[in-house]
């Protein structure tokens, strides 16, 4: 069985909104197989005038290679990986001589040989002894480069654990990200849980807390919310009173806590945690944390209705990816978060700009493809542009990939497919897709309401939307700028004019939330529907024409064709049959070109 060529990876942690809408995974992978092996990370470390090259198993100085016995080289690598702490003798014995009983003298001899070799390069003081405690690698390092390498599927559990023992905190984080992106692997998680217990037994509470954070992230992404929350609580308890000595660990825990606060609709807590993450990043000069904190505060402000401030924070976050030298996973997280937020708000211009920037940035890092939710975003943009069949094909292909590699987010793809199928007028297929999304635990109330209206049942659509908005359902909350105009349209068509008027008044109180051109187009169409239902035919025609102009400017042909049908219906009320037929012919041409003639027939039901 072949290996995977891992060219780039990141995790999209933006959307832990509502069960089971888990942390979304989006990986830059070139896949050659379905089952992913365990990941190992290697190290290149430079200190003084010495270079430690783990992949080549060489210690280089003055243009030559310093001779080291294999066990001595492993000792140096282990101490270098854990240079942030004193490594106990017992831990070193267990790591270097697994399943073998040796005396302390063997370790002392290995340390002595290592010091002798380092002394040849003028670095004999690098390994320091702490009496009755252990040893520590004590030197400033100029550069450390970690990159993914993979172990075969048949790697024994004890060998996996051995690899984990050799990783420092930063390396463990990168390893966990790859695991999150590579599909479910309980055996690997079991090894990580064993490592947690070992560190806890050795009294290394901060290290154990960090492992608990990683376990919480993985479990939540797998949809195991109770386990995830349990590990989160465990990490919080272990770090209690140690926030100053474990600032970075606490900050990443706060980032996870912010996602959980979002899950509970506690946006003020989310904002507070995001600001703490950002401030810690600034203090520690950790660009990743600084950007993640800014991303979180921007999201929180958007959810709180502070649209201008939220968008400004998100745009600033995007600009930091290249300027601040973010890691690949954090940079990818930021870009995908920006794109998802823009698409959810129907801010397609901004989404396209960030998508183009994302691809340029990924290309510079050797990204070969963009499966997962990035492909889903691309499909959604295609649908907006009228490439409906291409969007359907892309989503179906994405579903097949997610079913193998990231089943915990497969429901989002089915939800998105249902929305495109409704746009095409394929209502039976859309209902099947919605059923599939519901089976996977997704909230699809907004899509169900859209389906009801397309089927001609406005009353059912209104009832569904009112209940979903009352319970603050995720499908409406994340698309509030679309949900409210839709409710107005459905209520107007169903004769519930007071509901339509009240909803429009609510929208008028928050103009910032509807400043985006697409939302303006929907809002204008909603006003037109209310005017039509109220007998104000000429007002409705004028409003529909304004909406049509906006959709044409946005390059959204199917939405424009729907509006043309409504204009034609209003023109017939005014007995202007000639102009009405012209609008219908223009609409039919667009629907036919986009493969959505069935949608036109459904639209004409409201004539």
Question: Overview of this structure, please?
Answer:
By secondary structure, this protein is of the alpha+beta class. The protein folds into 4 domains: 240 residues, Serine Threonine Protein Phosphatase 5, Tetratricopeptide repeat, CATH 1.25.40.10; 111 residues, Orthogonal Bundle (Arc Repressor Mutant, subunit A); 71 residues, Serine Threonine Protein Phosphatase 5, Tetratricopeptide repeat (Alpha Horseshoe); 92 residues, Alpha Horseshoe (Serine Threonine Protein Phosphatase 5, Tetratricopeptide repeat), CATH 1.25.40. The protein is built from 28 helices and 12 strands. The protein has a 5-stranded antiparallel β-sheet with strand order 8-7-6-5-12. The chain has a 3-stranded antiparallel β-sheet with strand order 9-11-10. A hairpin with a 3-residue loop joins strand 10 and strand 11. Helix 26 runs antiparallel to helix 27 and helix 26 packs parallel to helix 28. It is elongated, with a radius of gyration of 28 Å. The N terminus is likely disordered.
Keywords:
4 domains; Arc Repressor Mutant, subunit A; elongated; five-stranded antiparallel β-sheet; three-stranded antiparallel β-sheet; alpha+beta; 607 residues; 66% helix; Serine Threonine Protein Phosphatase 5, Tetratricopeptide repeat; 12 strands
